[in-house]
Structures are given as structure tokens and as C-alpha cells.
Amino acid sequence: MSDLLVAGGQVLRPDLTVERADVLVDGETGDIADVAEPGTVDAPETLDASDGLVIPGLVNAHTHVAMTLLRGYADDKPLDAWLQEDIWPVEAELTADDIEAGAELGIVEMIRSGTTAFSDMYFHVDRIADAVERAGVRAVLGHTAVTVGKDDEAARADCQRSLDVANELDGAADGRVATTFQPHSLTTVGEEYLREFVPKAREADLSIHFHANETENEVDPIVDEHGVRPLEYADDLDLLGEDTYVAHGVHVDEAEIDLLADTGTGVAHCPASNMKLASGMAPVQALREAGVTVGIGTDGAASNNDLDAFDEVRDAAMIGKLAAEDASAVPAEAVVEMVTRGGADLLGFDGGRVAAGSNADLAVVDLTAPHLTPAHDLVSHLAYAVRGGDVRHTVCDGEVVMRDREVLTLDESAVRERASEHARDLVGRAEGDA
Ligand SMILES: CSC[C@H]1O[C@@H](n2cnc3c(O)ncnc32)[C@H](O)[C@@H]1O
Ligand SMILES: [Zn+2]
């Protein structure tokens, strides 16, 4: 790949100041080589950023990308009823081809809205990795183990699969895929399996990602059965640590917040999903004040119902203020930091900032829209006013994956058509009329 110059725009720097600069990308390494005075460097390929703001590619810290196939399939229910009555029955019919088609659709949606990296929990993960490879984005993937409702042999096989997939796929797609060991949650994976498999994940040096403290219904059974709060139980199982990030972290008390901070465990905050399923409000201000690294995730498109991280950023600021009952809580700078550097830190890659030596994962936001006028404060705009559709170009690992709103790595109309067909056939099978 030849060097690339992202030229003529303003640039969001790691300290969240904005300056006019050109960004030089090293085509060999896929890293940012220089952030230079405008007009002082040149490269064989140019990306026009005039009237634009160059920002780090956004990081979606928790999703189930193939659930785009179930967007709008079941709404307006709380988590347990939604999963048990609607989602799990239809997911039982999912094929590997369905998952690949759904993953491609979700990735196109993310590229179009400036997301260059995502963390995913699902199954048939090799096919999600194939989609990631073709699309040119970055992802942390894993096979999610669930043991409830399974006999011992099937439960152990599912946990073993989570370990095997994490070991096998790490480093795929030219290093753009990393992996995690993934127990689904503390209530859907039995204690005996966690006691057996978490040490194996630790021995293999795998990172760990699981749903935690999402609803009250998930907290109470753990307190009843184990006599401690969920994250204390997780700590006893050696699930917490620098290499762990949990999804949600809504119903956490002060001692659990301290435990997250003391162990270096991160949180992927999913505000839209938490609001839609009426799960509750995560104490984001308190988490950040305690020193917990917080990223932002969309969760799946069936509980959101889109994968636009800009929506999520705005929701995170709004609900963060409401949860803290303080309009100054979770300010614009905090949510912009969370969706860039915070997410990159959780996922464990060197990105989330426009600076020399960092991964060249970038988005260029078109500032010419009426809803972005005037431009008193571009960090405010990123938090409260920019929409996914304002993204003009997306770059990942130094490669332009969307130029002038055209996705270059995947055929968008074919992806949409294929996903629609798979979604229709899937629902037909699940409802017994295929
Ligand atoms: C077995 S793959 C992952 C599993 O998680 C389910 N899921 C989607 N959204 C949520 C959520 O908010 N909390 C818990 N589990 C969720 C998904 O449907 C898959 O079955
Ligand atoms: Zn989830």
C-alpha cells in the first residue's frame, strides 16, 4: 500500500484540542507517520478532508454484529422476556451463512458511521472474522459460552469452544482480529464451568469479556446463591483484571466500583440498550471518577436498534447526567474520550488517537451540514450534534475503507440484499413457515 495524506482538514488531537493539520499515513505499517502543518508533506494518495474534522475511528466496545438480522424483530420487552421469548428461539435457527450475512451488514453500517473497531460476542465466529477481513476493519471476537439448559457434556464443549476459538483466531485478518474468552454472563454460565475454564483462559493469557450487572434480575440470584454481589463473585472466580472488560455494569454498588478500579477491569457502557430494555442507568460518572476505563458500545442492533456510535455517544452523555442528577456529569470531552481512547484501551490496541505512531484508524466528519453550523466547539458537536451520516471517509489500518460515503471494501447493495434474504428466511424457519 502507498502512503496516504489526509489533507486540508482540522484534526482532533489526543488532548481534544482541534488544529488545522494534514495526517500522513505510512502505507507499509498502517500507522500514522506524522501530523503535520498543512501543506508541508506529500504522499502518492490523498484523501480530501477540507471542511472536515479528522478524528480517531470510533470504537464500538460491545456488540453482537450479526444481530442486524434481528433489527426490529422483537421490541419493547425487558431483557429476560426479550431473550427467552423472542431472541433465543430465533437464534437457535441461525446458520453460519446467516451470521456472515448479518456481520457484513453490521460492518457496513459501522464503516458508514465512522466506526473502525468493534468488540463482538456471538457464535460461528470464523465467519465473522472472514467478514472483518474482507471489510478491512478491526475487531475483538469470541465464541460466547452459555451453559444453562445444556447437559454437562454440551456445557463443557461450549466453554472449550470459547477457549479454542480465542486461541485459533487471535491475529487473524493480518493482525486486525484479536480475541477474548467469553462466558455469556454470571447467571447463564454455571459456577462449576467458570471454576474449570477461567483458569484455563488465564493460563492461555486470554482476555475475558462477559455481560455483568446488566439488570436487577441478574444481581439478585447471585446474592441469594453466593451471598455476595456479582462482581465480588466474579473476582472470586478470577474473572476480573487488566485483561477483562464487562458489558453494561449498570447495577454496581460502591464496593463493586472500587473492585473494578482496583483490579483494572474495564466497562463497555451500552446506554441505548440499557434504556430500550429498561435495564437501568450505569453510574458512568462514578465509574470514571473511581478510575475505571469506560468504553461505549451499541450492544446488538436488536436492542438499540442501530450501530451508529455517534447516537451512543450522545445517549451516554444524556443518561450519564440523568443518572448522576448533575448536568455537568459525563461532559462532551468524557464521551468523546470514551468512544475513542477508552474503547481502544479496552480492546487492547494502540489506537483511538490521531498521533504519530498510532494505528491509522480514522474518520473524517463533514462539517458542512446545517445541524453542525455554527462551529463554536467541535468536541461539543462530536458529543451532541454529529450523526453517523456526517462521516465522509473512513480509514482503518491505513486503508481507505470508505471514500466520499462509498464503502470500498464491500458491495453495499449486495450486502443489504443478502442480509434481507437471510433475515427473511431465518424468521420463516423460526416461525415454522419456511
Ligand atoms: C450466545 S452469543 C451472545 C448472546 O447474547 C445475547 N444478547 C444480546 N444482547 C444481550 C444483552 O443485552 N444482554 C445479554 N445477552 C444479550 C445474544 O442474543 C446472544 O444470544
Ligand atoms: Zn450484549
UniProtKB/TrEMBL annotation:
Molecular function GO labels: 5'-methylthioadenosine deaminase activity; metal ion binding; S-adenosylhomocysteine deaminase activity
CDD domains per the UniProt record, alphabetical: ATZ_TRZ_like (cd01298)
Keywords: Hydrolase, Metal-binding, Zinc
Cofactor: how and how many bound: Binds 1 zinc ion per subunit.
First-level EC class: hydrolase
Cofactors: Zn(2+)
Protein's UniProt keywords contain Signal: no
Signal peptide as annotated in the record: none
Listed transmembrane segments: none
Catalytically driven reaction(s): S-adenosyl-L-homocysteine + H2O + H(+) = S-inosyl-L-homocysteine + NH4(+); S-methyl-5'-thioadenosine + H2O + H(+) = S-methyl-5'-thioinosine + NH4(+)
Binding-site residues, substrate: 91, 184, 214, 299
EC number: 3.5.4.28, 3.5.4.31
Domain (Amidohydrolase-related) ranges: 53-401
Residues involved in Zn(2+) binding: 62, 64, 211, 299
Similarity annotation: Belongs to the metallo-dependent hydrolases superfamily. MTA/SAH deaminase family.
PANTHER family: AMIDOHYDROLASE-RELATED DOMAIN-CONTAINING PROTEIN (PTHR43794:SF11), AMINOHYDROLASE SSNA-RELATED (PTHR43794)
Stated role: Catalyzes the deamination of 5-methylthioadenosine and S-adenosyl-L-homocysteine into 5-methylthioinosine and S-inosyl-L-homocysteine, respectively. Is also able to deaminate adenosine.
Protein name according to UniProt: 5-methylthioadenosine/S-adenosylhomocysteine deaminase
